[in-house]
Specification:
Helix 4 packs parallel to helix 9 and helix 7 runs antiparallel to helix 8. Strands 1-2 form a two-stranded parallel sheet. With 228 residues, the protein is mostly helical. The chain has one domain. Helix content is 78%, strand content 3%.
Length: 228
């Protein structure tokens, strides 16, 4: 099986498994019995994110190791030249400004923050940020790393970008048509930048800024309180 088919299979199987498990009423019920009604609001979301780390990160990494492939081949290069830094900083500023205004919309606030507790302790803010970051590292490695670079080898640059962006938009459909449509230009840009720099770090860092600023602005706009 060539690498492009492997990567698409991992994404498809992982996505189906992920959404089957996070929508499992019996699994959530077992979590609730163990942790209680309040803590389940936190630990259930943490479960989502760590499940994503396993399905989107650990499995592709295991496949790469098993086949004796070089991780640099899939965008895990340590190089971070000035173009990488400038693009990361510039896109992060744009994302912050956009999220400052966009996150106050009712559509956004019905979904975010994902952890629906009223009081956010410092430990919860840090824990949520950590789990978001871990999830997004796995997510970006699968999309802009394993999937993108393996498809480029088999299909060429623009077909690979088209396939990547189409799949990226499709996985956003459950979050609403606006997010799915918005994923198209963002997906094309992040794929292009990843291929230009040879690393996933711009895509990863910008995605982290997007997720965390969305969460923090949403906490503010929903009137949730930070406590010590």
């Amino acid at each position: 099986m060539n690498l492009a088919i492997q990567s698409i299979t991992v994404l498809a199987a992982g996505y189906i498994c992920y959404h089957f498990l996070i929508r499992s009423a019996s699994l959530r019920s077992s979590f609730e019995k163990k942790w209680g009604v309040e803590r389940i609001k936190i630990y259930w979301i943490y479960f989502w994110r760590y499940l994503g780390v396993f399905l989107y990160g650990v499995i592709p990494v295991a496949l790469i190791i098993f086949q004796g492939l070089d991780f640099h081949r899939f965008g895990l290069s340590q190089k971070a030249g000035m173009p990488t830094l400038w693009w990361t900083a510039g896109l992060s500023i744009v994302v912050l400004v956009m999220n400052f205004f966009a996150t106050r919309s009712p559509d956004n606030l019905t979904q975010y923050p994902q952890i629906r507790v009223e009081k956010w302790s410092r430990a919860l803010v840090v824990g949520s940020a950590f789990t978001w970051t871990a999830y997004l590292l796995a997510y970006e490695f699968l999309f802009r790393g394993f999937l993108l670079f393996s498809c480029v080898e088999e299909m060429g640059i623009w077909t690979a970008i088209a396939v990547n962006t189409a799949l990226y938009a499709l996985v956003h459909v459950p979050k609403g048509i606006k997010e799915a449509i918005g994923a198209v230009p963002l997906g094309v840009l992040l794929c292009w930048l990843t291929l230009q720099t040879g690393t996933i770090w711009i895509a990863f860092l910008v995605h982290v800024v997007m997720a965390l600023s969305n969460e923090w602005f949403s906490i503010y706009y929903t009137g949730r309180r930070a406590v010590g």
